[in-house]
Amino acid sequence: MNHRPGPAQKLTESLLATPWAIAIDPARRDGRILRTETEPSRPPEFSPVPPGLDPGLKEALAATGIERLYRHQAEVFDAARTGNVIITTGTASGKSLAFNLGVLDSIARDPKSRALYLYPTKALAQDQARALTAIRAPGLRPAIYDGDTPREERPPIRRRSNLVLTNPDMLHVGILPHHRSWGDFLSNLDWVVIDEAHTYRGVFGSNVANVIRRLRRIARAYGREPRFVLASATIANPVDLAERLVGSEFTLIDDDTAPRASREVNVWNPPLSNPAIGARRSPLAEGGELLAELVSHEIRTICFLKSRRGIELIRKFAAERLSARGRPDLAEKIAPYRAGYTPAQRRGIEADLVAGKLLGVVSTDALELGIDIGELDAAICVTFPGTVAGLRQMWGRAGRKRKGLAIYIAGQDALDQYFCRHPDEFLGRPVEAAILDHRSTEIAAQHLVAAAYEMPLTAEDGDLFGPDLKRSTGPLVTSGELRRAGQGLLPRRPGFVAASVSLRSSSASSIAVIDRSSGEVIGTVEMGRAFTTVHPGAVYMHFGATYEVEQLALDEAQALVRPFDDEWYTRPKVETEIFIDRVIETAEVQGVELHFGEVSVSDQVTGYQRILSADQEAIDLINLDLPVQEFRTRGLWYTLGDEMTGELPLNALLGALHATEHAQIAVLPLIAMCDRWDIGGLSTNLHAQTGEPTIFIYDGHPGGIGITRRGFDEFARLVADAHKLISECACEGGCPSCVQSPKCGNLNEPLFKAGAVELLGSMRG
User: Fold this and answer.
1) Domains in the chain, number
2) Which of 105, 320, 404, 567 has an alpha carbon 20 to 30 Å from 604's alpha carbon atom?
3) pLDDT tens column, 175-187
4) pTM score, whole prediction
5) What is d(CA 415, CA 677) in angstroms, rounded to the nearest whole number?
């Protein structure tokens, strides 16, 4: 008898026909893969090379095999001739050629024309420089100008190069304060290209928006108003982001006409290891085993995780599994990649990927972006990276030319498990809006002082820095940061102002991590993360090796470490206090008195737990005596009256407030484009200033960047999502999938799940 296969059988047969089927089939059969979706392939749409393009450039493009364009590339070229443009299309859609065309055409026609390219990472600038050189465009003299550029090569670059590739940090510290050395370049500056624009959000984006305004101000002084071309991954608010970043109007090109191979997407949830407490098997172990399995079948794979320590562990787990299976040769073909490595280490890994010497790489989001690392078959994302936009960028690394595999391995924290309970909603979830606030008080103030160093601030600068410039600079004059000089303002203090302003973190300086046994600097840690990352006794991982911190010497800006081979890691215990500085707005929402305003936060690392890597069990708690760190930011807070809390005993109230705070922090990334590590919180049964039970949620960066403002504006949704998150979880007393937090400074004590459900339910009415 002949049987026709049904839809389920056809799906199974189709999946088993893929090259990775054997590697992931066990997870499909035992239920770890919750949902599978296939993204269809897409044919290209072409346009001819623009007829007005410089003939020499046409020949150069033809020599590299480019004789026609995707339609969106031609549209960018046309739009950029008359104004600013932002292009948002998918991974491997040819965005680089789209923004290069106008620039290369201008330089081919006039070699004195200048262009500045900004990249968020040095690796991207290196990659684009290689691609530009390969085109051999007429008149083009490109050069990289960043922190790795030798001193003796810098003056010739300033004089001769007509296309300079750099990053916002070098523009901020190495170019704008020394603009007189760049006079010829700036007086001919026609183009500014900003690639990977979606990365400029939060504190980094807010800082960079001020740097761009400083660039426009200096360019005006040299008689130029350059055109801006931005390229971005798909986000919900591309034009808004571009206009906030640059301060000018933009045209959007977002119709992706490049071809796309099909891609199989899987949602994977690690199995429960202890159902009684809701604990699941480590996603790092799951990721390591899956990576090893794919590599053993010679499937070229990239595995992403935000945690630096985590990528080292995944690489270690994968290597151990391959070695145990008698394939140590394959273990050598997996490399970790993250910030903190030396430039030579990063370039070596990138070259090995392109050359096909590596079968696997485990990376932080440093390789999420558009650097060419060759053709990959599979992309694994271990735990939610914070945004759907980022996740899709990571998945886009796989299967650019042939069918690819994309996998999301959920963590056990609340947001990941929320997505696992709603996989269809998760896969269909739209990308988020990127948030930045260039007017953030602390951030803007620093850049106003830096701008005054470059050229006296005057009332004419109000159209760039805001019409309230006089009000913004008043406190800086009062505090002694600025002084009046004629019609303008100059810095009062001598010295190099920009060097003290960090774009990427709340601290300008960093700690060198030194292996005491060899004296070698093996990595760096931002000063703001030092107390939680390299405190005495902390376990630090680098390039697959594990170290224990013996000494943190702040005055010498170094942490001394020794090789370490025990099976535990460390988690800091942090005590936090909050003082309300200023109430900006108040509202009665969801039955509570809700506030938004400025707060001062003080954190102190008072100890750390040692936790077994295998089962996540805490061994002990060791006390520390470290200085208090303070910063001022913005946040929301609300008080709960006796009608909601009166019947709860004290310990239950503390646990209910704490669990409610955790749940709201967990779901805030669903509203704002951020992750939970950008947000802090505090709950107390009696705050000294409010006199009532109070919950605070604040931006985790000095000055605030607009995250909790979104929470204030969408508070009803914040309450509803948090209530849904907790009440849907099947655990009894609270677990990592609902109210426990991996970043809790109080080590998740006390927590009372039922009380939080009751409080949030009361707020919902």
Assistant:
1) 5
2) 567
3) 999 999 999 999 9
4) 0.80
5) 13
